[in-house]
Design goal:
This protein is mainly beta. The protein contains 1 helix and 7 strands. It starts with 10 loop residues before the first helix and ends in a 17-residue tail after the last strand.
Length: 140
């Protein structure tokens, strides 16, 4: 049988974290979409699923190497909310802000939506690209 160490100083903080998570979920009617971020030699690429979202309703901005995605999904059905058995399809505004892993040239960013996937390509800034440095040696 393993012993569980009692940590009285962490319990209040766990309750506080749970309170803020619950409050945030209640107050924020929107949601944060999932994103994938990866790097190539030349670019930082961000992908986000757009299922049910019109690309025209998405705003993309880059400032200080932080990418911000904002938008809104609309639900067009006329069903009274009291008649739902289960309601899992999200509707409303969304917001996502992520720090990019490298410095980028925001003015040259490109975005395209294909088959329900938004792909944002951000070219890396020159100083962020890997540089090879050769070591000089004096052979005698």
């Amino acid at each position: 049988m393993a012993l569980i160490k009692w940590t009285p100083f962490l319990e209040p903080f766990e309750e506080m974290d749970k309170f803020f998570e619950d409050a945030h979920a209640t107050l924020a009617k929107g949601f944060a979409p999932a994103v994938d971020i990866y790097e190539t030699k030349e670019d930082v690429v961000v992908e986000m699923p757009l299922s049910g979202i019109d690309p025209k309703d998405v705003e993309i901005s880059v400032e200080n190497d932080v990418l911000t995605l904002k938008g809104e999904t609309k639900k067009e059905s006329e069903v009274d909310e009291k008649n739902y058995y289960r309601q899992e399809i999200r509707a409303g505004s969304f917001f996502r802000s992520v720090a990019l892993p490298s410095r980028v040239v925001a003015d040259k960013a490109e975005a395209e939506a294909v088959d329900g996937l938004l792909k944002i390509t951000l070219p890396k800034a020159a100083e962020a690209k890997a540089k090879t440095v050769k070591i000089k040696t004096d052979k005698k």
